[in-house]
Design goal:
Layout (H helix, E strand, L loop, with lengths): L1 E2 L31 H8 L14 E8 L9 H20 L5 E9 L13 E10 L2 E10 L13 H19 L4 H16 L3 H8 L2 H24 L1 H18 L6 H16 E9 L1 H10 L9 E6 L3 H8 L9 H10 L2 H27 L18 H27 L8 E6 L17 E5 L8 H10 L4 H4 L3 H15 L6 H39 L6 H37 L3 H30 L3 H29 L1
Parallel strand pairs: 1-3, 2-5, 2-6, 6-7, 7-8, 8-9
Antiparallel strand pairs: 3-4, 4-5
Helix pairs in contact: 2-16, 3-10, 3-12, 4-12, 4-18, 6-20, 8-9, 9-10, 12-13, 12-18, 14-18, 16-17, 17-18, 17-19, 18-19
């Protein structure tokens, strides 16, 4: 049985007498201590802590937010309740058959020492019982971007450096030897090479009236967007300036006041807890990592969880503050790593070689070998085709070697070795999935999927636009399950083990490996379906043409995956829930109706229609634009009804 607090932590926080939770008797700072004790502890290091046995809590859990405009209590509300509910669920399912009781509530900002009932919930003491007795757990929030702490005089040179660092971050991401980045570069090369060719331009020449309608609608949308921006220009400038300022302050590294604030909160909870668990989001992951690197003397276990962490991106941005490696050569290398021209050069070299290799391969397979030697065929440079391909591959390998040894190595984050570190990320998260290549092997990475419980269009919107949102991470089963298991493990509750967490993460990793293998198989099937379809119409598709048209077909397969996986699959999922179909039957049904049939066939059909049916692209564009406009109108009506209510 669980005795609970009201989850409406944004309004008045009156605590029920039946809940066993007292809102009085202790002050509202996160550690529950008086002002003198708190101020005294802020000046102490962790080495002066009490012995582990005399500490008040078996586990202290600290929630750390990212950049943005959170208010005190927002992060706690988003993170605490899903974890608390999941811990209770595990307790009921496990061998312990225990109970979860909330025994003490704390209100107000953790940076001040007062208690007002109208302030949000920022801390809870929880007692968990199993067959071995009671375990006490403290949940607290670290609120680090107060009103005055992020003020700093604007410096044009610093802004330029940050902008260059963001560009460096983008180029580093694209320069990684990954299938997605390679395909992206080749597709851009395909589009640039196709522009101006008669066969490509003929796709857009028909049905001029429909293109006029599409252009008119886009023009209206652009006009409304410009008007909206002009109306909100001062507010938008304020938001950008504040977010930019938070990045700017954090970029200072150990000199940052933000890191000092987070370090203070970590020290406070360490002083009262035998073990600690820190769950962070976005910039909070970077601040916690820097803070933990300075902490010594804590004898308990430390667990660190990052969601969409800014640890990787900020470590690259912060690199500007390094002075080299103690020598003239180290200083020179450090300056080269921050020079944007190095990244532009490598990116240009790699792009040219990848696109040229793709084109040379299509030439290679187009040769009929009539003269008995493939070497007769000439590449773009006039050299024998095999020599061109060899040069392409050599230059690509050298470019990736330079990226791996010279660039990536300089930004590599070391594993501190004194805590268990987990990083969760969505594939579409532009922060959490931007620079994972800087993580060392000791940092456990876990790719997480989406939430199919959303509406069809909401699923698309959430995954693409708000994949970095903290609330969206806390709706993911893998994130919540792992965090909740760490709570039980850190507190020493029976039936919680590290083995269960690692087993679930390995299972999740294998699932996505199989997912990639499956979609590659479907992609090959799509190519074969295209060739068979054209052959049936007496239009055989030679293999060299498949290679040349490959970038467009791969792009269309990704579009098919996006449409099918994010829209139709969600509709089928919701329908299966409505009729009560079991999860196993749903997977079988989804496999045959969606994965196998639609993803394999949609891309070839799009390809055939785009290149073979005049006016198809303009009709498709008009259909997509009209659907987009209807969605905007529907959301506006929904918003107006909500405002009126």
């Amino acid at each position: 049985m669980t005795e609970d607090l009201s989850q409406n932590s944004s309004g008045s926080q009156d605590t029920s007498q039946d809940s066993g939770v007292s809102s009085e008797g202790q002050l509202s700072n996160p550690t529950g201590e008086n002002t003198a004790a708190q101020n005294n502890q802020k000046s102490q290091t962790v080495t002066n802590q009490n012995s582990q046995g005399s500490k008040k809590y078996d586990l202290g859990v600290l929630f750390v937010h990212g950049i943005g405009f959170q208010k005190p209590g927002d992060t706690f509300k988003t993170m605490f309740w899903p974890i608390k509910d999941k811990v209770e669920e595990f307790m009921n399912q496990g061998k312990s058959n225990g109970t979860v009781n909330l025994t003490q509530a704390y209100y107000g900002s953790g940076k001040y020492n007062f208690q007002i009932n109208n302030t949000p919930l920022t801390g809870v003491d929880m007692q968990v019982s199993d067959s071995n007795g009671y375990k006490s757990i403290a949940f607290r929030e670290s609120y680090w971007h107060g009103k005055n702490i992020n003020k700093q005089d604007a410096n044009f040179l610093d802004n330029i450096k940050i902008f260059q660092a963001v560009l460096r971050l983008f180029f580093l991401k694209v320069l990684q030897p990954r299938l997605s980045t390679i395909l992206f570069i080749i597709f851009i090369g395909f589009m640039l090479r196709s522009l101006g060719t008669s066969s490509f331009l003929s796709i857009f020449k028909d049905d001029g009236l429909q293109w006029v309608i599409v252009a008119f609608i886009f023009g209206l949308l652009a006009l409304f967007l410009i008007i909206f921006i002009l109306m909100k220009i001062s507010e938008i400038k304020s938001v950008i300036k504040s977010l930019w300022g938070q990045i700017k302050i954090s970029k200072l590294g150990y000199a940052s006041n933000y890191i000092k604030m987070v370090s203070s909160d970590i020290n406070l909870i360490m002083n009262e807890s035998k073990n600690i668990l820190i769950i962070s989001h976005s910039m909070g992951g970077y601040l916690v990592y820097k803070a933990l690197a300075q902490i010594n003397g804590f004898n308990g276990k430390i667990y660190f969880v990052g969601m969409g962490s800014g640890l990787g991106p900020m470590s690259i941005i912060e690199y500007d503050n390094k002075d080299g490696e103690g020598s003239i050569l180290g200083y020179f290398v450090s300056k080269l790593r921050t020079n944007i021209l190095v990244y532009l050069t490598l990116f240009s070299l790699l792009s040219v070689e990848l696109v040229t290799l793709w084109f040379n391969l299509s030439l290679f397979f187009s040769c009929r070998w009539d003269n008995g030697s493939i070497l007769i065929t000439r590449g773009l440079s006039g050299n024998p085709i095999l020599m061109c391909i060899f040069i392409n591959i050599t230059m690509i390998l050298l470019a990736y070697l330079a990226v791996f040894v010279f660039l990536n190595k300089g930004f590599k984050l070391g594993y501190l070795g004194k805590y268990s570190h987990y990083e969760f990320y969505y594939p579409a998260d532009l922060v959490g999935n931007t620079s994972r290549f800087v993580y060392s092997r000791g940092i456990n990475e876990a790719r997480v999927g989406g939430n199919l419980g959303l509406s069809a269009m909401g699923n698309i919107f959430k995954r693409v636009v708000f994949a970095h949102d903290m609330g969206y991470y806390m709706k993911n089963n893998t994130v919540v399950d792992s965090s909740s298991r760490l709570v039980g493990l850190g507190a020493g509750v029976q039936s919680f083990s590290l083995r269960d967490i690692e087993f679930d993460l390995r299972k999740n990793y294998r699932k996505y490996q199989l997912w990639w293998a499956w979609y590659i198989f479907l992609g090959i099937g799509g190519f074969q379906a295209l060739m068979d379809t054209l052959k049936a119409y007496n239009v055989p598709l030679p293999f060299y043409t498949v290679i040349y048209a490959g970038p467009m077909l791969v792009f269309l397969q990704y579009v098919s995956y996006f449409i099918v996986g994010y829209f139709f699959k969600t509709l089928i999922h919701l329908y299966c829930l409505k009729i009560g179909l079991s999860s196993r039957l749903y997977r079988v049904f989804s496999f045959f109706t969606i994965d196998f049939s639609m993803i394999t066939l949609i891309a070839p059909l799009l390809f055939i229609n785009i290149y073979g049916r005049p006016g198809f692209v303009s009709s498709l564009a008009l259909f997509v634009v009209l659907i987009f406009v209807l969605i905007i109108i529907a959301n506006y009506i929904k918003w107006r009804k909500g405002s009126a209510g």
